[in-house]
Specification:
By secondary structure, the protein is mainly β. It has 3 domains: 113 residues, Thrombin, subunit H, CATH 2.40.10; 85 residues, Phage tail protein beta-alpha-beta fold (3-Layer(bab) Sandwich); 69 residues, no CATH class. It has 6 helices and 23 strands.
Length: 381
């Protein structure tokens, strides 16, 4: 529990975000931020939209504020106790005014997406000759330095450099579409998340992160140590999918069998993954891609199996942030304790929705892993 309370700072501006003026800060009613390792992360901020002052008869002062114009930058910083966390960094993409005849009842809501939205505004036709996917990903990310993007690109397990005499990879679509399509081929994800300092963002292209520090535990049924308002679990025995088939090797011209047997995320988070506990129930799909060499085809089939195994066990719930004393971040690990061996243990944080208003901060979360059973004997608070 935080003894110093929770504070929210709003930074906003055309390109460089600065602390919001008093009028804007005092008008703020609520904030909602949704973070996920798939798709855009987004925010929604609601302000009280009064019409007081000298210009009130002409229009809503907030609606005409240059700070709330579309594509202005918004940074949200939450301080719990004495520790600041950059919660969100993005751009305004939508305004919504809700008028009311009740004094003080009108509201202005601005909605936006993380800075990766700038990668999704222009379709391109572009060639990337003799460049592997990791090189292309790094090159695309580096084209957006004005948003403080720091590339974190992981080399695939089976990197290939196309022979330009046989194949020239082309991009048909936006930079964001291309980054995600390349990531999907390897069972990877692409997302942009705030860094430790305002204005700095990490552009991550790689496998779902299962390394690094484990976040403070989500705790259930442990008296005063509990920090969960509600939690539910879903075990989907049909989620995990294996593949078999064959491919005509583009290098040797020989037919080569393609087969997968289980997910291979490292480190494993479940002691009883689906391919062991429910082998007979695994979906078996055919691998039908062509024009690939054998090793690339096998790697892509394994990537699909890995991705399908990620969502066998899902936990959804809500945290009281004041009792939790921290900001739960997606795209990393968290411990869960207090519900028994089958569901206790480490999880990958898939998504988090932060809801803040005066006197309240709730965090709705979605956690995933490949099956039941804890792989660790003890979890720290």
């Amino acid at each position: 529990m935080s003894l110093l309370g929770i504070r929210l700072n709003l930074l906003i501006g055309p390109t460089v975000a600065v602390p919001a003026p008093v009028l804007l800060a005092e008008s703020l009613q609520s904030v909602q931020v949704t973070e996920s390792d798939e798709g855009h992360s987004g925010f929604q901020i609601t302000f009280q939209a009064g019409r007081g002052g000298m210009l009130g008869n002409m229009d809503y002062p907030l609606l005409t504020s240059p700070l709330l114009k579309p594509f202005n930058r918004v940074i949200l910083v939450v301080t719990i106790g004495a520790r600041p966390f950059v919660l969100f960094d993005g751009l305004i993409t939508n305004q919504q005014l809700s008028g009311s005849s009740t004094p003080g009842g009108s509201t202005l809501t601005i909605t936006g997406e993380d800075v990766s939205v700038v990668m999704d505004r222009e379709e391109r036709s572009f060639e990337h000759p003799a460049q592997g996917d990791a090189v292309v990903a790094t090159k695309i990310i580096a084209a957006y330095p004005q948003y403080g993007l720091v590339p974190q690109v992981t080399q695939p397990a089976n990197p290939t450099v196309p022979n330009p005499q046989r194949q020239v990879p082309t991009q048909q679509g936006t930079d964001l579409d291309h980054l995600r399509r390349m990531a999907e081929r390897h069972g990877f994800v692409f997302y942009v998340m705030p860094g430790d300092a305002p204005g700095v963002n990490i552009a991550y292209w790689g496998p779902p992160s299962r390394t690094g520090p484990v976040q403070p535990s989500v705790t259930v049924n442990m008296g005063s140590a509990s920090n969960v308002e509600s939690i539910n679990f879903q075990y989907d025995a049909l989620a995990a999918t294996v593949y078999d088939g064959e491919v005509l090797d583009s290098e040797s011209g020989q037919r080569r069998p393609i087969r997968t047997f289980s997910g291979n995320r490292q480190p494993p988070l479940a002691a009883q993954p689906a391919h062991i506990a429910d082998r007979a129930g695994l979906r078996q799909n055919k691998f039908r891609e062509s024009g690939l060499d054998g090793s690339t085809a096998q790697s892509r089939a394994q990537a699909r199996t890995d991705a399908s195994s990620d969502h066998v066990l899902t936990a959804t719930g809500e945290l009281d942030a004041n009792r939790y004393g921290n900001v739960l971040h997606p795209r990393g690990l968290v411990g869960l304790r207090g519900v028994g061996y089958s569901f206790d243990g480490l999880y990958y944080v898939k998504s988090v929705t932060h809801s803040l208003s005066r006197g309240q901060y709730r965090q709705q979360f979605s956690l995933t892993r490949e099956g039941k059973g804890s792989t660790v004997p003890v979890l720290q608070p």
